[in-house]
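Entries read sequence, tokenised fold; example below:

***
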Amino acid sequence: MVQTEYNDLRIEFNSLFKEMTDVYHNIALKLGISDSAFLILYAVVELGCGCTQKDIVDMYYMSKQTINSSIKNLEKAGYIEFKQDKGNNKQIFLTSSGEKLVEKKIKPVIELENEVFADMTTPEERQALLRLTRKYVDLLRQKSELLLSYKT
């Protein structure tokens, strides 16, 4: 039975999530790069040069195929290069062109995000946003795993 008393909350939450996704899509579009290229370059900044495709997949829960395809395009464009680590992993490094691209297009977005957190009234407000979002994600994951275990 669907609990209709929560429908309005669910609809608003999903709408906010979609709106946030659209904000990032529009940023990437205005910057002239694909959503996946934006995420990969953003991840390289966050994770540091030397990260792997697996690190990026794990960070953004995107498919390996999407990441791999976009990484190949970034490599062809001369923004990233690969170096083999001591194991069997290819590490991702920004080229000088990639560094310039990141400085011009990715780091300003990260600064903007930091400003958004700074504009929230109090440290408690910032922590509440993170705590409640984490709680929602954890509960969603638990309940979806339970649902899917019954469906298989």
Observations:
- The mean pLDDT is 92.
- The chain is about 75% helix and 10% strand.
- The first strand starts at residue 51 and ends at 52.
- The domain at 4-106 is CATH 1.10.10.10 (Arc Repressor Mutant, subunit A).
